[in-house]
Design a protein that fits this description.
- It is built from nine helices and eleven strands.
- The protein is α/β, with parallel strands linked by helices.
- It folds into two domains: 46 residues; 207 residues, Glycoside hydrolase/deacetylase (TIM Barrel, Alpha-Beta Barrel).
- Strands 2, 3, 4, 7, 8 and 9 form a six-stranded parallel sheet that branches. The chain has a three-stranded mixed sheet with strand order 1-11-10, with no helix packed on it. Strands 5-6 form a two-stranded parallel ribbon.
- Helix 2 packs parallel to helix 8.
- The longest helix is centred in the N-terminal third of the chain and has 43 residues.
- It starts with a helix and ends with a strand.
């Protein structure tokens, strides 16, 4: 007399299992489909900002730049070389460097070179919040302003380190954030020949390139004349960054190349 009851119970278990499997299929399908919508939303709402690594231009121009954060022993020699070669460059100065070497700052400015902001204390900007980054930039700005009555508009993040917050802080203070697409590697002190080859044979060297040097690297004073001559032989005009970049009507591509809208 228990057989009909057992068969009914078995049918009920099968029905429940089928319902459970159907429910699981619906849940799994929803989970698999959901990430696509979330990813698109996140990408659209958190666009990555980029500094200016180089400029798209038909003009055969490049810019050379120097970061000044430590010593100043070679600064006068570098300025003499630039004067002899009739080249104007861009010097990015830390706030404490400006305080320590005011005469060198005046000499750079008097020679007609760009002066850019390299932060007040050479801090890691990506580790700071928006207000802290603003203070770093404004601190160096105020020191140059007090010394030269000049408002800088070019900012190079210390260590080349940046994120959206760093760039947003610079933008809020009226600055263009500048990187480079050619690193001379002078800070590694590989020697004159290596430094010259690193720049003149670099795969990224082209119209609109920005080249990184430092004002206190061991071999740059000896390598710089050869590099300048080599760039000129390739047909490049050397201009300061302020004359290379676009001030408005531009956008940044995914490689950090500044392009016209």
């Amino acid at each position: 007399m228990f057989k009909p009851f057992a068969r009914a119970l078995l049918r009920r278990k099968k029905a429940m299992l089928k319902a459970f499997l159907t429910l699981m299929f619906v849940v799994v399908t929803a989970v698999v489909a959901a990430p696509r919508a979330v990813t698109v939303f996140n990408v659209a709402s958190a666009k990555r900002k980029l500094p200016i690594y180089c400029v798209e231009t038909e003009k055969k121009q490049v810019a050379i730049s120097f970061d000044a954060a430590w010593g100043a022993d070679d600064t006068a020699q570098l300025l003499a070389i630039l004067k002899e070669k009739d080249v104007r460059a861009t010097f990015f100065l830390c706030g404490y460097w400006v305080e320590k070497y005011p005469e060198e700052v005046r000499a750079i400015h008097a020679a007609g070179h760009d002066i850019g902001n390299h932060g007040d204390t050479h801090a890691h900007g990506a580790q700071l919040n928006l207000d802290q980054n603003k203070r770093e930039i404004q601190g160096a700005h105020d020191k140059v302003k007090a010394l030269l009555d000049f408002d800088m508009t070019l900012f190079r993040p210390p260590f080349g380190e940046y994120n959206n917050v760093v760039i947003e802080a610079a933008e809020a203070l009226g600055y263009y954030t500048i990187q480079w697409d050619i690193d001379s590697l002078d800070w590694k002190n590989y020697g004159v020949e290596h430094e010259v080859k690193q720049v003149l044979s670099h795969k990224h060297l082209g119209n609109g390139s920005i080249i990184l040097f430092h004002n206190d690297a061991d071999f740059t004073p000896e390598a710089l004349p050869q590099i300048i001559d080599g760039l000129k032989e390739k047909g490049y005009e050397l201009v300061p960054i302020s004359e290379l970049i676009m001030k408005d009507g531009f956008y940044m591509d995914h490689e950090g190349r500044q392009k016209k809208d």
